[in-house]
């Protein structure tokens, strides 16, 4: 075997040339999810109640809306990377392409809808 292949194996890149980066990205997003979800739980516990008006006004603050948007981005990205690995490992025919396309469409569509919802609350006035 050539030196390039052995070097790639040492670096953890493998044949796809992105294995180590993907692995690290999954760990970083997992840590981010842990930290952000802890923030969310503690923030909600500190609210006087969980009624619609209370949570709505809480989410209008940039100190709440920005971390919530980060939760959406981080969680959906982590979800996409994890399912991508499962699809790559277990789908080996044409259904792999369809599954990957559906994964991307669903992840970015649902994440976009969640971000839109957060931003709509954050940038609109109090509910009437």
- Uncertain segments: none
The fraction of residues assigned to DSSP E strands is under 5%
Main beta-sheet annotation: none
Oligomer class: single chain
Rounded mean pLDDT is 88
Q: Helix- and strand-based class?
A: mainly alpha
Q: Name the shape in a single word.
A: elongated
Number of helices: 5
The helix fraction, in percent, is over 70%
Alpha carbon gap, first and last residue: 70 Å
How many strand units? 0
Radius of gyration of CA atoms, rounded to a whole number: 20 Å
Topology summary:
Layout: H1 3-11, H2 19-46, H3 52-59, H4 62-90, H5 95-123
Helix pairs in contact: 2-4, 4-5
Provide an overview of this structure.
By secondary structure, the chain is an all-alpha fold. 80% of the residues lie in helices and 0% in strands. It contains five helices and no strands. It has helices at 3-11, 19-46, 52-59, 62-90, 95-123. Helix 2 runs antiparallel to helix 4 and helix 4 packs antiparallel against helix 5. The longest helix is centred in the middle third of the chain and has 29 residues, at 62-90. It is elongated, with a radius of gyration of 20 Å. The model has no long low-confidence stretch (mean pLDDT 88).
Q: What is the structure about, briefly put?
A:
This protein is mainly alpha-helical. It is built from five helices and no strands.
């Amino acid at each position: 075997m050539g030196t390039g292949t052995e070097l790639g194996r040492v670096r953890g890149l493998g044949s796809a040339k992105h294995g180590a980066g993907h692995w690290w990205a999954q760990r970083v997003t997992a840590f981010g999810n842990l930290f952000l979800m802890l923030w969310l739980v503690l923030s909600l516990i500190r609210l006087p109640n969980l009624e619609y008006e209370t949570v709505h006004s809480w989410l209008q603050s940039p100190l709440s809306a920005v971390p919530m948007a980060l939760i959406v981005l981080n969680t959906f990205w982590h979800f996409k990377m994890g399912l991508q690995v499962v699809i790559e490992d277990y789908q080996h025919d044409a259904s792999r392409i369809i599954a990957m396309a559906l994964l991307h469409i669903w992840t970015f569509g649902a994440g976009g809808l969640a971000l839109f919802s957060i931003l709509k609350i954050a940038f609109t006035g109090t509910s009437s």
